[in-house]
């Protein structure tokens, strides 16, 4: 709904509104008739839309960390360019980019007023407030840029399309987070060489189609077994999965909090931590695998653990239970 439609709506709704709602409707209608409020709207609307777009991008489940960082960096540079020059010096208020629609509507407001000087002074005051908003937006975006940008360097190189393509794959020493592969560096490097030469589409684990999801691909690789029963790429896949767990936003954490909140309802407020942990793990796995309880297949290991006291405990706890 645009500005004029809102104004027309309140003009029609005002006479028919109740006495309690009429006062609020009058206030809103007066605001909609104020051309200066419209200027603020034309200034803020594209800014808010862009912030929402970037925020939605960061809420994606499997967005590329490098793309997310580049997107935020580009957004920050775009805001910087509106208020600073190439050397980082503040622009004069007459050269600040307030948006084309804002400038067009501001010119209309000035031309519609008989006293041009008063109108120009009023527009200048509006621009000063908008400039303060832009500077604060720049500050907030700068705060959200990760201090350790090198952590997000080359995570897109872990995508199967690049790892399995000799023309696109990056050298081993350029893979991200090298400290995660220090213990098995030689083994991981050798596996990184060999994985390129494996006919993965012919392997039953992929059923002729290699997943486009980086996480799903490496999850299959870490569980892949040769005919001899050993896992030839376990160290490489484990290292890459560890890289992919590096958080780049709080979206996953927020979803986990929401999931826990949906489990611990008022009716189930006495639920123990162990049961809460079990239910949360089950629901998280079902959401991650896009599965449901109807089609879920129980593994042999799960059946073996049904007699354990701590089915979802760590390995040492389960070993103690087995004893």
Keyword list:
extended; mainly alpha; 323 residues; 3 domains
Descriptive account of the structure:
This protein has 323 residues and is an all-alpha fold. It has 3 domains: 34-145; 153-245, no CATH class; 252-317, no CATH class. It has 14 helices and no strands. The chain starts with a helix and ends with a helix.
Average pLDDT reading: 84
**Mind describing the biggest β-sheet?**
none
Question: Based on helices, strands and strand pairing, what is the structural class?
Answer: mainly alpha
Low-pLDDT parts are none
Q: Write down the overall geometry.
A: extended
% residues in beta strands: under 5%
Count of structural domains = 3
Radius of gyration: 29 Å
* Contiguous helical run count: 14
Outline the fold blueprint.
Layout (H helix, E strand, L loop, with lengths): L2 H14 L2 H15 L1 H24 L6 H19 L16 H13 L3 H29 L15 H4 L21 H10 L19 H9 L11 H11 L6 H13 L9 H16 L11 H6 L9 H8 L1
Summary, kept brief:
The chain has 323 residues and is mainly α.
């Amino acid at each position: 709904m645009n500005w004029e439609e809102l104004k027309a709506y309140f003009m029609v709704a005002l006479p028919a509104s109740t006495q309690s709602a009429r006062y609020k409707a009058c206030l809103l209608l007066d605001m909609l008739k104020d051309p200066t409020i419209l200027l603020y709207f034309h200034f803020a609307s594209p800014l808010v839309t862009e912030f929402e777009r970037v925020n939605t991008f960061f809420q994606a489940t499997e967005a590329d960390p490098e793309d997310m960082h580049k997107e935020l960096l580009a957004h920050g540079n775009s805001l910087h360019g509106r208020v600073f020059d190439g050397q980082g010096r503040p622009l004069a208020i007459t050269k600040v980019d307030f948006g084309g629609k804002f400038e067009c509507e501001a010119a209309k407001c000035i031309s519609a007023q008989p006293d041009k000087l008063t109108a120009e002074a009023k527009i200048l005051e509006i621009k000063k407030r908008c400039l303060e908003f832009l500077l604060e937006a720049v500050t907030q975006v700068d705060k959200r840029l990760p201090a350790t940008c090198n952590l997000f360097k080359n995570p897109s190189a872990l995508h199967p399309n690049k790892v399995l393509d000799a023309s696109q794959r990056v050298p081993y020493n350029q893979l991200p987070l090298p400290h995660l592969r220090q213990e098995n560096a030689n083994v991981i490097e050798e596996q990184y060489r060999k994985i390129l030469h494996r006919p993965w589409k012919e392997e039953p684990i992929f059923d002729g189609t290699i997943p486009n999801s980086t996480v799903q691909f490496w999850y299959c690789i870490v569980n892949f077994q040769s005919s001899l029963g050993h896992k030839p790429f376990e160290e490489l896949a484990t290292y890459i999965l560890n890289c992919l767990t590096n958080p780049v936003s709080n979206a996953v954490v927020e979803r986990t909090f929401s999931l826990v909140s949906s489990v611990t309802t008022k009716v189930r407020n006495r639920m123990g931590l162990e049961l809460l942990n079990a239910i949360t793990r089950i629901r998280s796995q079902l959401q991650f695998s896009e599965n449901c309880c109807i089609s879920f297949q129980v593994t042999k290991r799960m059946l073996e653990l049904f007699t354990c006291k701590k089915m979802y405990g760590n390995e040492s706890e389960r070993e103690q239970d087995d004893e």
